[in-house]
UniProtKB/TrEMBL annotation:
<dbReference type="Pfam" id="PF03070">
    <property type="entry name" value="TENA_THI-4"/>
</dbReference>
<protein>
    <submittedName>
        <fullName>Thiaminase II</fullName>
    </submittedName>
</protein>
<dbReference type="InterPro" id="IPR004305">
    <property type="entry name" value="Thiaminase-2/PQQC"/>
</dbReference>
<feature type="domain" description="Thiaminase-2/PQQC">
    <location>
        <begin position="22"/>
        <end position="214"/>
    </location>
</feature>
<dbReference type="GO" id="GO:0005829">
    <property type="term" value="C:cytosol"/>
</dbReference>
<dbReference type="InterPro" id="IPR016084">
    <property type="entry name" value="Haem_Oase-like_multi-hlx"/>
</dbReference>
<dbReference type="InterPro" id="IPR050967">
    <property type="entry name" value="Thiamine_Salvage_TenA"/>
</dbReference>
Length: 220
């Protein structure tokens, strides 16, 4: 069985929890409050900076030149293309660069970014891909699911269209392929570490959206 098929099956319950959680249910219905989406979009813009750094480290560890290019371009997309989408929402909310920079990472965002960067620095290439894959794959699946049930005139249609679109689907397919190729040569012990990384990142995906819905902040 391909690593990706096995990883998805092992985390199917977690994905269903993400798909049906209040944040994504309200987003699809177009009833998600502006305050909750504002919290999400600010934190996701912070997250993408860390995600781009982790992708750059994956590029540095990649054994093949084509994978170096793939992950370097992925880092560029995270910083430039996706942040352009976020930037349009930030402008709509009146959030300028100074306000954005002064907003601290929420506990779930800080946890997720710290985990990805620690993994990207300290773990072998195969485990790094296991940790990075859920962000790609789960976003694509959630985007497609929300697109299929989104209400007409949804105020968050630009976000929905981005993650349900063909360009993002192509990037996800390339990431799945890279991860499966890396797993082919992995020992059973290393493959198990890949699965642990994938499962933990999946839990952090849930925490990120849940934190946005609850407006999670540091207690002290």
């Amino acid at each position: 069985m391909r690593f990706s098929d096995e990883a998805w099956a092992r985390n199917a319950v977690a994905y269903e929890a993400i798909r049906t959680m209040p944040f994504n249910t309200d987003l699809a219905a177009g009833t998600l409050s502006r305050e909750r989406f504002r919290h999400y979009i600010v934190q996701d813009a912070h997250y993408l900076i860390g995600f781009g750094r982790a992708l750059s480290l994956a590029a540095a560890k990649a054994p093949e030149p084509d994978r170096i290019v793939q992950f370097a371009r992925g880092a560029e997309t995270a910083i430039v293309v996706e942040r352009a989408l976020h930037g349009s929402f930030l402008r709509d909310y009146g959030i300028g660069p100074e306000t954005f920079a002064a907003t601290p990472l929420s506990p779930p965002c800080d946890h997720y970014v710290s985990y990805l960067l620690a993994t990207a620095y300290a773990e072998p290439y195969e485990v790094v891909l296991g940790a990075l894959l859920p962000c790609f794959w789960i976003y694509a699946e959630v985007g497609r699911d929300i697109h299929a049930r989104a209400k007409a005139g949804n105020p968050y249609q630009a976000w929905i269209d981005t993650y349900a679109g063909e360009d993002f689907a192509d990037a996800v397919a390339a990431m799945i392929d890279a991860t499966d190729m890396a797993a082919l040569g992995a020992s059973p012990a290393l493959r198990a570490r890949m699965h642990r990384a994938y499962s933990h990142a999946t839990r952090l995906e849930w925490m990120f959206w849940d934190g946005a819905y609850r407006d999670a902040v540091w207690p002290l």
